[in-house]
Amino acid sequence: MPWLQVRLAITPDQAEPYEDALLGLGAVSVTFMDAEDQPIFEPDLGTTPLWSKTHLLALFESDINEQDLAKHLTLIAGTGADFHIEHIEDQDWERSWMDNFHPMRFGQRLWIVPSWHEAPEPGAVNLHLDPGLAFGTGTHPTTALCLEWLDGQPLEGYQVIDFGCGSGILAIAALLLGATRAVGTDIDVQALEASRDNANRNGVDPARFPVYLPADMPDEPADVVVANILAGPLVSLAPQLSRLVKSGGRLALSGILAEQAEEVRAAYSADFELDPTAEREGWIRITGIKR
């Protein structure tokens, strides 16, 4: 069945009343998207911020009267409103979404492989992980920077901590690359559940990958600590993260914008011999060895 899609330019304060109004007109879904490729970083807890320039997308069944819909939109948004109505052909939305994701290689050995794809190199280290609400699937530059770094480390026999584990992608990758044990921690209970599910999917023994809320995590240092979170928490957590790395152990930090790099490096420079900063698409990875 074809659809009618309304694209309406709004400001954040218009989001809720416009959403209610369009649902009242019969929209089957309302979503919001960035109108100008404007990132939102480190939102306040409990908030769902929108971009300063946002597009509202409302989907209607095709039997709705297009002229009447346009009149209602003018009444809702005003005569100068910036909106566009277009016809969307029906398709296999799930198949279309799946076609956007393919196996990705990180470093020399490691692949992230969606469940519906065959592994391109069956003999490589293949981590099976699907996109979605998985808190990190390798597609973001910060995750890619960490995965490439892990692929280049001699992890055999090492203990690893994944601080802010999300999907568990970094901890599971470390285990598949040879680490003996990895501990994951995250403030989100759903993230911990996602980590457990992904570990099980990849045949990881739960005893090798325990996950904890931060307050419950054992205060035991590890050979390798990775933290792909945000610059603000990385700075404030520097004393704790430093304690979690054994003397001579390695630390990898990401989730950092290029302009935040010096502040994060300064927070760790007393305890670590830091490597040159790595950058990808404006995002930073900072690594070093514990003194």
Automatic annotation (TrEMBL):
<keyword id="KW-0808">Transferase</keyword>
<feature type="binding site">
    <location>
        <position position="164"/>
    </location>
    <ligand>
        <name>S-adenosyl-L-methionine</name>
    </ligand>
</feature>
<comment type="similarity">
    <text>Belongs to the methyltransferase superfamily. PrmA family.</text>
</comment>
<keyword id="KW-0949">S-adenosyl-L-methionine</keyword>
<protein>
    <recommendedName>
        <fullName>Ribosomal protein L11 methyltransferase</fullName>
        <ecNumber>2.1.1.-</ecNumber>
    </recommendedName>
</protein>
<dbReference type="GO" id="GO:0005829">
    <property type="term" value="C:cytosol"/>
</dbReference>
<comment type="function">
    <text>Methylates ribosomal protein L11.</text>
</comment>
<dbReference type="InterPro" id="IPR050078">
    <property type="entry name" value="Ribosomal_L11_MeTrfase_PrmA"/>
</dbReference>
<keyword id="KW-0687">Ribonucleoprotein</keyword>
<dbReference type="GO" id="GO:0005840">
    <property type="term" value="C:ribosome"/>
</dbReference>
<keyword id="KW-0489">Methyltransferase</keyword>
<keyword id="KW-0689">Ribosomal protein</keyword>
<feature type="binding site">
    <location>
        <position position="228"/>
    </location>
    <ligand>
        <name>S-adenosyl-L-methionine</name>
    </ligand>
</feature>
<feature type="binding site">
    <location>
        <position position="186"/>
    </location>
    <ligand>
        <name>S-adenosyl-L-methionine</name>
    </ligand>
</feature>
<dbReference type="Pfam" id="PF06325">
    <property type="entry name" value="PrmA"/>
</dbReference>
<dbReference type="InterPro" id="IPR004498">
    <property type="entry name" value="Ribosomal_PrmA_MeTrfase"/>
</dbReference>
<keyword id="KW-0963">Cytoplasm</keyword>
<dbReference type="GO" id="GO:0016279">
    <property type="term" value="F:protein-lysine N-methyltransferase activity"/>
</dbReference>
<dbReference type="InterPro" id="IPR029063">
    <property type="entry name" value="SAM-dependent_MTases_sf"/>
</dbReference>
<dbReference type="GO" id="GO:0032259">
    <property type="term" value="P:methylation"/>
</dbReference>
<feature type="binding site">
    <location>
        <position position="143"/>
    </location>
    <ligand>
        <name>S-adenosyl-L-methionine</name>
    </ligand>
</feature>
